[in-house]
Amino acid sequence: MTAEVKVEEKQVESEVVIASVEEEETTVKAVVEEEKETKVEEEEEDDTKPKGVEKISSFKEESDFFSDLKETEKKALSDLKTKLEEAIIQNTLFKEKKESPVKVEKKKEAEEKKKSEAVVTEEDAKAETSEPAVVAEDSLKEEAKTDADVTQVAKAETIEKESPEEEVKAEAVVVDSKEEVKAENVVQEEEKKTEAVVTEEAKAEAVEQEEEEETVDNDIELWGVPLLPSKGAEGTDVILLKFLRARDFKVNEAFEMLKKTLKWRKEHKIDSILGEDFGEDLASAAYMNGLDLESRPVCYNIYSVFGNEELYQRIFGSEQSRENLLRWRFQLMEKGIQKLDLKPGGVTSLLQIHDLKNCPGLFKKELWVAIKNAIVALQDNYPELVSRNVFINVPFWFYAGSTLLSPFLTQRTKSKFVVTRPANVTETLLKYIPAEEIPVQYGGFKRDDDTEFSNEAVSEVVVKPGSSETIEIPAAETEGTLVWDIAVLGWEVNYKEEFVPANEGAYTIIVQKGKKIGSNEGPLRNSFKNSESGKILLTVDNVSSKKKKRVLYRYRNKTESSC
């Protein structure tokens, strides 16, 4: 490659980068303007409903009960089960019904042979018609030379009488010799073709024998569910419906997708991936934690870990390490599937949360190529196993980055995306996950190794603009410890805590003196050990004149008997 070509390539790459940056800046400006307009509109509204989700998915998960399907969907499921049953029983699941390569080759040879025979016949005919004309011309020349000599003429006449017979004999010998050579050539050519055909047939037989050895077990399973429909496993319909829905109930396309998934799992040895160890580097990049409102397992993906340059080089520095990253992601998916109940009415999908806080930008090409590869592989081989992908703490540049991923995603996958900015994380997550299952760093009440709470319910009150609400926590025992969690979405309120004894003559005890709490504050936990009966009062004063505030809280009264 010349220096000029390299320079031109660099210029092209630079132009592409510049174009991407310009596109990103345009997108960011549009988003900023949109957010400003949205903010103005929210301030003008009565704010009767909580706001916060910038982009919400329209996807709604369908039922897996056969009786709930449409008639066209029932037929598609029945047709797919028939095709799958035949493919497994007849051992054609991993083989295509194609004409033998040997037969195809023989047909081609036969056609070529016919063409070559026709050409040879035509050339022989031309040769036979031209030879007598040459002989006649030679005789005329001989006669012209011998006109002066009568004796020579007489001899010539005698020779002329005898020569036709000799010429005919000579021509017959030549023709016979030509035919013998042709015959020998044809025989040799046929022998070579025969040997080649025999060799090809032997190879084909070897391949067929190898394919026959790779039989499809009637007990074949996917994610622990038998695939042979005649076995009657209740999870079979659930699995097949996932492939049908991923392909809009087009039976042939769903069947091909299923076959490709099974081949992909075999080639990448996915069934044994749970036993692989990928080290500690990726341990904090994703984890399973809690359940959503529909009891689905929730998986949190933390992209900030890739901001560590040393770790980034270890993960993306070589082709093998990048391959390990993908396999680690597949392993995480397999672990999540183990928590599912793949039967009608069961929990059959996961909820994915993607935290983009402090995520490296688009300039980290290797990261985004890996994200694209992972999304495509998961989309193609784990259909309908993710109910939604919720992206939180989304930076401005994500809107530009998502356009790069869009061409690789199906419309159904896109419909499951939820995107929200940092200010609205908690409110967005509450649409899908109960407060007690949302980690405390995202505004919920879930803490690691928490011994203070177990199954206590979370309550909610709404504080109207310009008003206040007081939450009462009773302390009926003369001695005990009260523990409570409280969170105000978006805070920006005045807040205080106090204990009021039941005895009217006793003094009120200030637990937390009044203070203004900003919007970045997380959930608060506090406790109070009382020596007499009474109640804890939590007062929230909404200083906003336009926006209402959602207050979440729970409490527990710990006595000696309950500890």
Q: What's the SSE blueprint?
A:
Elements: H1 3-44, H2 71-89, H3 101-145, H4 150-213, E1 221-222, E2 225-226, H5 234-246, H6 251-267, E3 286-291, E4 297-302, H7 309-316, H8 319-338, E5 350-355, H9 365-381, E6 386-392, H10 397-405, H11 411-414, E7 417-419, H12 425-429, E8 459-463, E9 468-475, E10 480-488, E11 493-501, E12 509-517, E13 524-530, E14 534-542, E15 549-558
Subcellular location: Cytoplasm; Membrane
Domain CRAL-TRIO: 275-450
Family: Belongs to the patellin family.
Task: Give an overview of the whole structure.
- A five-stranded mixed beta sheet has the order 3-4-5-6-7. Strands 8-15-10-13 form a four-stranded antiparallel beta sheet, with no helix packed on it. A four-stranded antiparallel beta sheet has the order 9-14-11-12, with no helix packed on it.
- The chain is built from twelve helices and 15 strands.
- By secondary structure, the protein is of the alpha+beta class.
- α2 (71-89) crosses α6 (251-267).
- The chain starts with a helix and ends in a 5-residue tail after the last strand.
- The protein has helices at residues 3-44, 71-89, 101-145, 150-213, 234-246, 251-267, 309-316, 319-338, 365-381, 397-405, 411-414, 425-429; strands spanning 221-222, 225-226, 286-291, 297-302, 350-355, 386-392, 417-419, 459-463, 468-475, 480-488, 493-501, 509-517, 524-530, 534-542, 549-558.
- The longest helix has 64 residues, at 150-213.
- The model is unreliable at 1-57, 131-137, 139-165 and 206-213 (pLDDT under 50).
Silhouette: elongated
Number of helices: 12
Range of helix content: 40-55%
- Determine the structural class based on helices, strands and strand pairing: alpha+beta
Number of beta strands: 15
Rounded to an integer, what's the Rg over CA atoms?
Answer: 42 Å
Could you name the ranges where pLDDT drops below 50 across 5 or more consecutive residues?
Answer: 1-57, 131-137, 139-165, 206-213
Q: What distance separates the N and C termini?
A: 77 Å
Please indicate the percent range of residues in DSSP E strands (runs of 2 or more).
15-25%
Spell the H/E element sequence. Answer: HHHHEEHHEEHHEHEHHEHEEEEEEEE
Biggest β-sheet: strands ordered side by side in the sheet: 3-4-5-6-7
Determine the mean pLDDT: 79
Determine the oligomeric state from the structure. Answer: single chain
GO biological process, one term: cell division
Domain GOLD: 455-557
GO molecular function, one term: lipid binding
Protein name: Patellin-4
